[in-house]
Amino acid sequence: MIYDLQKLAEDELNSSSETSSVVELDETYQTRFNRVLELRNAMNCAFYEREELTTCQFVSLIAAENMAVVGLAGTGKSMGIRTIASNLQNSEMFEFICDKFTKPADLLGAVSIPDMKAGIDRIRIDGKMGTCHLSFLDEGFKLNGATLNGLLGVLNDKRVWNGTGYTASPMISCIVASNEYPTSKELGALWDRFPLRFHVDPITSDDNFRRLIFDSQQVNSPIQLEDIYALQAEVDNCNFSPSAFDVLLELRAEIKALRIYISDRRWKKSIKILKAYSILEGKDCVDRESFNILKHMLWDKPQQRQKVWEIIDNLPEFKSEEDREKDLLNQKVKALLDICQANSYSEFISSEEDNISNLLAEEKLEDEDRQLIQDSISNKFQNFFQEKIQQTILGASKLKNPQKRIMFLCSEVQNLTTDLQTEEARLTVWNCDSQYQNFLSSLSGLLQKFKG
Predict the structure, then answer these.
(1) Same domain membership, residue 87 and residue 19
(2) For residues 385 and 269, what is the distance between their CA atoms, to the nearest angstrom?
């Protein structure tokens, strides 16, 4: 059976009645959203200085992505996910303390001996990672290479090998906790499967330390598995605007400039993470504030965290559609002028005639930019035509026979006049100055000069 989390969510929302109204569906979603919000708030009240960790754990569930939590022993790395699991009704959680001797069978299931005796290849996957909704691997980065390789399929593709083929896994998210960051190369593939990564520090505030010692950290605020599915179903509906993509492009460029490697897989998942965070915050679109969740995603080594945080803090605000249109026009103007500068007049007109017409006809084009384009085209043409006249003079001067010289000049002047008239018609449409009368006078004077 293949578990499609979004379809499960939509089926659950529609299961009450095939004739449910849109209003009823919205009310159902709001009820589910409120339950998730209540659990999140309860955890924030119970777990001091762990608000961002709690947020990231809920985002991992809504985005159906995995998460790594790294920090010193005793800092509450496992507390959050266990609390969520204990309050998440109708769900199962797999938990295992890992070390270098952990075998794939410990996590994914062992070969069934009775079936093997009967000649059947079957792995008992029930109760293991592949059949549970949540997985928690304590000290997961201590796993050996063989076990790591066995995990990649269930972590990334949400499928598990049952001995005869792959079966889809209902696992929403896997949380791995560790006292140390992965350092060996063989852990690189596993590390990349955990797009969300959170560093936990000990409590710093004296007041929060007192509350930790004397207050209860018990949380009882049940939610349903279908509540998570309902929020997951909204992720695709969350708007990721062109302005949001502009900011993402700038973020990507700055991170690349620092030589921080972020895989294409993680960049693609970043969109889903941004949307999931926005849904959790009650928004229907990704805004500038949503990018703060990427502080817990877009770094590879712990020493890079601070630099990435500074980059994200200094990202620009979203531009309005009017400003984006203005920027796009500016880019088009610059590109056109660069092409004009780099090519001959004939090549420029041949390749860019339609672009010139469209750009000059754009109502929102600034008058200064329009004039700059027209002046550039005019200057380009005038230099081009002046050069052709000079070439004609040079060609005529090489002919010693006066009669041949006059015949050559008559032919060239006639061709140049035709070219001038053609370009004058084109440039007039663009309101560009071709110096038409001056060039006609130059061509007429050219004949008179050599006849004399």
Answers:
(1) yes
(2) 56
User: Which residue intervals of 234-320 are DSSP H helices?
Assistant: 242-257, 264-280, 305-313
299 and 399 together in one domain? no
Q: Is the pLDDT of residue 218 over 80?
A: yes
Domain with 17 in it = 5-234
Q: What is the mean pLDDT of residues 98-109?
A: 91
Beta strands, E only, 277-397: none
Answer with the one of 200, 234, 268 that is the final residue of a domain: 234
Which has more pLDDT, 106 or 406? 106
Task: Produce one character per residue of 74-86: b if its CB has 16 or more CB atoms within 10 Å, e if not.
Answer: ebbbebbbebbbe
Report residue 174: phi and psi, to 5°: -115, 125
92 and 194 part of one domain: yes
Do 181 and 299 fall into the same domain? no
Residues 25 and 129 in one domain: yes
Nearest-angstrom CA–CA distance, 8 and 245:
29
> Of all residues in the chain, what percent carry a pLDDT higher than 90?
58
Domain end call among 266, 289, 318: 318
pLDDT digits 0-9 by tens, 150-205: 888 888 888 888 888 888 899 999 999 999 998 888 788 888 889 999 999 999 99
What is the domain-level CATH number for residue 180? 3.40.50.300
Judged against a pLDDT cut of 80, whether residue 80 lies above it is answered with yes
Give 5's pLDDT tier (boundaries 50, 70, 90): very low
- Regarding whether 295 and 214 lie in a shared domain, the answer is no
| Tally of domains within the chain | 3
Amino acid at the residue 320: S
Question: Which of 282-286, 293-297, 332-336, 447-451 has the lowest average pLDDT?
Answer: 447-451
Burial class (CB in 10 A: 0-12, 13-18, 19+), 206: exposed
**Do 69 and 101 reside in the same domain of the chain?**
yes
Q: Is the pLDDT of residue 234 over 50?
A: yes
306 burial level (CB within 10 Å; 0-12, 13-18, 19+): exposed
Angle at alpha carbon of residue 248, lines to 243 and 250, rounded to 5°: 100
CB atoms within 10 A of CB 140: 27
Tell me how far CA of residue 333 lies from CA of 64, 83, 93, in angstroms: 43, 57, 58
**Domain identity same for 175 and 274:** no
